[in-house]
């Protein structure tokens, strides 16, 4: 079995996308992060959902979550207001995590090795031009390996 | 809306569980990590799936994934052999990530704030004895906040 057999389609975002739109893409998929690609579809990095929350929430909430409890405003409004007019690029941390990539004919052991080196439970599958064709999640990989 | 309305049941493991069993629990759920609880069901930490791979795979695979490609053995066998007879406790990193926890009546903004402080896209929901009753994922939280 090869990477192509385990690869699934995955939504991606570009750096210039409004972060509010990106938050909706993030919510719509069952993954804790978003794959960010360049204009040609080549994977650049992963935007973690926890990073989106960190950038969106007022500092007083993060420093003392008990204070968040007394805010008399819907959480969605606070988060969307906090994101404001920023783009995906604005939300990315300065040190961007690498999104590892493999070719479609990588073996599953190769995929597991690439994933083990990163802290990201996701590996991009790319073609010969480094354009992303899909991705392999940790769950998907383990499902195939352990037949659950 | 409160934490209890967004909380979902979640499989947990204890530190003394054989890591092979834990890998199967990990594969069976759609989450990139496993909640580790003590004997009374109180959350201790999260075991990331990437950490399981790091502990299971031979070092030569991780240092050079291209070498993994030439291993003439099924990936599942390599991983299960690599885990060997170790337990969950053996696989946990020395610096264990905290799993944040909230009470069932926490507001969603409070949940978001607690999650923003951590790098874990998961918050445990606990009762008054700190026993875990469920968990809130980043996806679940955003689904409710952004109505996707």
List the secondary-structure elements of chain A in sequence, H or E.
HEHEEHHHHHEHEEH
The total tally of domains of chain A equals: 1
What is the strand tally of chain A?
Answer: 6
Main sheet characteristics of chain A: 3 strands, mixed
Q: What is the SS-derived class of chain A?
A: alpha/beta
Helix content of chain A: 40-55%
The CATH superfamily label of chain A reads: CBS-domain
Task: Indicate the proportion of strand residues of chain A.
Answer: 15-25%
CATH class of chain A: Alpha Beta
Number of DSSP helices of chain A? 9
Write down the Rg of chain A: 17 Å
Instruction: Provide the low-confidence segments of chain A as ranges.
Output: none
What does this protein look like?
Two copies of one chain form a homodimer. Chain A has helices spanning 3-6, 19-28, 49-56, 59-63, 65-69, 75-83, 88-91, 108-117, 138-146, and strands at residues 12-14, 33-37, 43-48, 101-103, 122-126, 132-137. In chain A, helix 3 (49-56) packs across helix 6 (75-83). The mean pLDDT of chain A is 90. In chain A, strands 1-2-3 form a three-stranded mixed sheet. A three-stranded mixed sheet of chain A has the order 4-5-6. Chain A has one domain (3-145): Roll (CBS-domain). The relative contact order of chain A is 0.22. The first copy, chain A, has 148 residues and is of the alpha/beta class. In chain A, strand 1 (12-14), helix 2 and strand 2 form a beta-alpha-beta unit.
């Amino acid at each position: 079995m090869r990477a192509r057999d385990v690869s699934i389609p995955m939504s991606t975002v570009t750096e210039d996308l409004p972060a509010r739109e990106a938050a909706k893409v993030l919510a719509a998929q069952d993954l804790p992060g978003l794959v960010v690609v360049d204009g040609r579809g080549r994977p650049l990095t992963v935007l973690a959902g926890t990073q989106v929350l960190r950038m969106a929430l007022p500092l007083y909430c993060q420093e003392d979550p008990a204070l968040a409890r007394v805010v008399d405003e819907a959480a969605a409004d606070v988060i969307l207001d906090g994101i404001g007019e920023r783009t995906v690029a604005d939300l990315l941390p300065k040190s961007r995590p690498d999104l590892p990539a493999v070719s479609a004919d990588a073996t599953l052991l190769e995929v597991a090795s690439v994933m083990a080196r990163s802290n990201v439970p996701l590996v991009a599958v790319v073609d010969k031009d480094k354009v992303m064709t899909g991705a392999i999640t940790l769950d998907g990989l383990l499902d195939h390996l352990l037949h659950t």
